[in-house]
């Protein structure tokens, strides 16, 4: 029997960083005890529902609400006319544009909000929606951004066609912005004079984050106390509070925004939607709480989409394969209103990370944003501000260049990686990568899958196919990605003028347990589990004794929320820094109790001990108690700390992925035989949570690459507005993922951690896509667009003459 508690026991007891602590959230989630917005039921609560436009572009000639108002249970029907006196018929977007809250004279996309019905229950509201009579006059619809830039049709009649937009001059009445990075002239010169040039045009199709829980809000105006409480599916509750205050004129301290449990966000719940505004106005008007929760179709048709980037690239190299230049132009379809959720200075997000993991001497990126008759949005969908577009672009360009050079794409990557000793590395488009060891990760990945063996097998398969022995081809998808996460330094990144720092406030209770509140909000990422682990290691109290709270603006310190994998890089750093403030004070208390100088004690796991005399110590629990009853003369009692952390740089996680796929050319059905994912997210806080994040991100990557799409017909009708048509993978399609890692800590992050949540999506999409494209490479394929659904794969095989 063990009679002594060892240091290892003490470390294990903390359940700190590096330990696969079980998720503390799951007890309530797996027992149906989560508290989501739709679980919020307040006394006297009314329910809202939208009348939405069936047309993608139409003038609204009249709205008749009489029949709807006559339905028993209907309390109000709001239209733009009702909101106009309040100045709320339009609202500002996160991208510096404005968006109609309710149709003001015309509609610009199918599913646009036209009127808001408020009724005694959800069913009555839905019935009343059917009774609202709207007279529309159809207008010409534009769903193609290239056509939009040529068209005489003015989509945004509210804008002065010649006036500049939020991001500078506009070239056309349907043009939103031009955004450039890099040196255009130098890049074009290098490419014009290069030994080898590869070109590709690719469409990264429109898709949607489609979280399991749709968006919703419950607004409750307490007219007696003048206090507005809003529960909502908000990824950035403090920002919502500030926006709500600016829009409504209610002072910010009188607004309480609460994000309860959130059933997935993936960027979809960052923006402000008309439903939130209408629920708030309806509650102010009626004096009772009003709930609005959208259904699945409404979520897919009208809330923030992702991607929709038309990318045109040129990449140049020497004959030996050393890349010399990269040129990229993007036509970005932003839909009816520019409501992209990006930091203010980055209208195309971090697309200028498109030089990827490669040492490219010169590069240029130009992006043109365009209005069309599609839903607004443009969120990062599990990718930090357009990084997945950037990584998809460069990882396809590498493959196309490999074809041009007749070279193995794995070798081409190796030749061009930024080398370990080049970090910190400033890329041609401006970012300073903090740390990386790409070659080590790549070698590990290729060895793990026996890359050479796979290529030999593939070559044999090509022979067999040509000899008529098989109808299945084999693809080896490669991707090496560098992410950029942790927006961000306040000097670079703000949203609506608010710098993108984040925060943590800690209170240690006398008995040695604690509560920590953060400016972020988990949507399933397990913050309550992992942030407690950071603190456990920093302050020496068990993670089980630390409660993490997020999402209530009345209690949590101001923060910019959770998206773009910023929680660990920013709020995680704030947590460590606040923990260190606690530890600094604890050191003084320990020294006082031990009657030695502050410098003569040192921190050891869960205690401060006298240097050279480890048997003389005070545990953090004892110190916590002393902070409240044996106060050092001249020092304040209590043990609390707060940190607002402005990161000096982003963090740059990276990874090496390989996908092995067999494709039946007659059915177009891909079978994923193997998927290997090596991720380097710096210091690993909770390996099990990381693995979960990777499984989830890869599955969403599979979805996007192999079928998921928001497709429109020429009339602007959404063709994939239900889960019958919009592909959500199930256990049936999802392969067994093999995960692996290397650890290259971030040099500027207090604990060396980089974000991870988005990496698997960013790296996964090009990997799945490259697998499909690689299978057809031996038969002449250069590039085909995603999503690679069965029909499109079949078409590729057909175009290549494989059905002849
Ligand atoms: O911002 P978001 O929470 O979506 O993304 P993240 O910062 O990448 O973190 C996702 C989850 O993975 C959190 O629970 C993190 O604490 C955890 N994580 C980790 O355990 N180790 C890392 N190096 C990075 C994230």
From TrEMBL:
First-level EC class: oxidoreductase
Tagged with keyword Oxidoreductase: yes
Reactions catalysed: CO + a quinone + H2O = a quinol + CO2
Keywords, ordered alphabetically: Copper, Metal-binding, Molybdenum, Oxidoreductase
Quaternary structure and interacting proteins, as annotated: Dimer of heterotrimers. Each heterotrimer consists of a large, a medium and a small subunit.
Summary of the function given for this chain in its UniProt record: Catalyzes the oxidation of carbon monoxide to carbon dioxide.
Protein's UniProt name: Carbon monoxide dehydrogenase large chain
């Amino acid at each position: 029997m063990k009679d002594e508690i060892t240091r290892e026991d003490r470390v294990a007891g903390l359940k700190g960083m590096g330990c696969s602590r079980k998720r503390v959230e799951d007890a309530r989630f797996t027992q149906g005890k989560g508290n989501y917005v739709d679980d919020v039921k307040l006394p006297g609560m009314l329910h809202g529902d939208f009348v939405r436009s069936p047309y993608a572009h139409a003038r609204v000639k009249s709205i008749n609400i009489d029949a709807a108002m006559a339905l028993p249970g209907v309390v109000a029907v709001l239209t733009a006319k009702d909101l106009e006196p309040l100045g709320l018929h339009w609202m500002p977007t996160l991208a510096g544009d404005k968006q109609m809250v309710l149709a003001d004279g015309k509609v610009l996309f199918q599913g646009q909000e036209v009127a808001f019905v408020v009724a005694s229950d959800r069913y009555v509201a839905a019935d009343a929606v059917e009774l609202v009579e709207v007279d529309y006059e159809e207008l010409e619809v534009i769903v193609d951004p290239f056509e939009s830039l040529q068209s005489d049709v003015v989509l945004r009649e509210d804008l002065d066609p010649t006036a500049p937009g939020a991001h500078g001059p506009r070239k056309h009445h349907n043009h939103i912005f031009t955004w450039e990075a890099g040196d255009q002239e130098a890049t074009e010169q290098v490419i014009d004079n290069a030994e080898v040039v590869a070109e590709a045009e690719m469409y990264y199709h429109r898709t949607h984050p489609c979280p399991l829980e749709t968006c919703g809000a419950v607004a409750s105006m307490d007219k007696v106390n003048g206090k507005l409480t809003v529960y909502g599916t908000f990824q950035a509750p403090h920002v919502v509070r500030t926006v709500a205050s600016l829009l409504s004129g209610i002072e910010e301290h009188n607004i309480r925004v609460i994000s309860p449990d959130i059933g997935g966000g993936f960027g979809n719940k960052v923006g402000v939607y008309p439903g939130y505004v209408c629920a708030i106005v309806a509650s102010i008007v009626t004096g009772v709480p009003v709930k609005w929760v959208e259904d699945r179709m409404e979520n897919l048709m009208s809330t923030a989409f992702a991607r929709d980037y038309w990318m045109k690239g040129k990449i140049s190299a020497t004959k030996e394969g050393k890349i010399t230049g990269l040129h990229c132009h993007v036509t970005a379809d932003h839909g009816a209103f520019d409501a992209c959720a990006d930091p203010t200075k980055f209208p195309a997000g971090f697309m200028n990370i498109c030089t990827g993991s490669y040492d490219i001497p010169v590069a240029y990126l130009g992006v043109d944003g365009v209005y069309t008759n599609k839903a607004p949005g443009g969120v990062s969908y599990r990718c930090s501000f357009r990084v997945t577009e950037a990584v998809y672009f460069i990882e396809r360009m590498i493959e196309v260049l490999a074809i041009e050079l007749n070279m193995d794409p794995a070798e081409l990557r190796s030749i061009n990686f930024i080398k370990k000793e080049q970090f910190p590395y400033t890329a041609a488009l401006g970012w300073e990568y903090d740390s990386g060891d790409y070659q080590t990760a790549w070698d590990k990945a290729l060895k793990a899958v026996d890359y050479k063996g796979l290529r030999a097998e593939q070559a044999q398969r090509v022979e067999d196919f040509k000899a008529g022995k098989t109808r299945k081809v084999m693809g080896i998808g490669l991707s090496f990605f560098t992410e950029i996460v942790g927006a961000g330094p306040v000097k670079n990144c703000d949203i609506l003028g608010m710098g993108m720092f984040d925060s943590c406030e800690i209170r240690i209770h006398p008995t040695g347990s604690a509560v920590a509140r953060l400016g972020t909000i988990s949507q399933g990422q397990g913050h309550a589990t992992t942030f407690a682990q950071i603190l456990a290691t920093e302050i020496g109290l068990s993670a089980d004794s630390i409660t993490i709270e997020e999402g209530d603006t009345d209690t949590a310190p101001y923060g910019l929320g959770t998206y773009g994998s910023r929680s660990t890089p920013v709020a995680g750093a704030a947590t460590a820094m606040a923990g260190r403030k606690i530890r600094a004070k604890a050191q003084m208390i320990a020294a006082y109790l031990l009657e030695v100088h502050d410098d003569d004690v040192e921190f050891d796991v869960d205690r401060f001990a006298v240097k050279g005399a480890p048997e003389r110590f005070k545990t953090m629990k004892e110190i916590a108690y002393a902070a409240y009853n044996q106060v050092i003369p001249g020092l304040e009692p209590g043990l609390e700390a707060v940190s607002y952390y402005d990161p000096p740089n982003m963090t740059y996680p990276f990874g090496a992925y390989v996908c092995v796929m067999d494709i039946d050319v007659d059915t177009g059905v891909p079978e994923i035989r193997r998927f290997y994912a090596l991720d380097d997210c710096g210091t690993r806080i909770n390996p099990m949570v990381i693995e979960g994040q990777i499984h989830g991100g890869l599955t969403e990557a599979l979805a996007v690459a192999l079928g998921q799409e928001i497709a429109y017909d020429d009339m602007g009708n959404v063709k994939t507005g239900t889960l019958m048509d919009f592909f959500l993978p199930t256990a049936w399609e999802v392969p067994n993922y093999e995960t692996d890692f290397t650890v290259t800590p971030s040099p500027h992050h207090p604990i060396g951690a980089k974000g991870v949540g988005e990496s698997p999506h960013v790296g996964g999409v090009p990997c799945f896509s490259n697998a499909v494209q690689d299978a057809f490479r031996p038969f002449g394929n250069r590039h085909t667009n995603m999503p690679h659904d069965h029909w499109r794969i079949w078409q590729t095989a057909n175009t290549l003459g494989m059905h002849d």
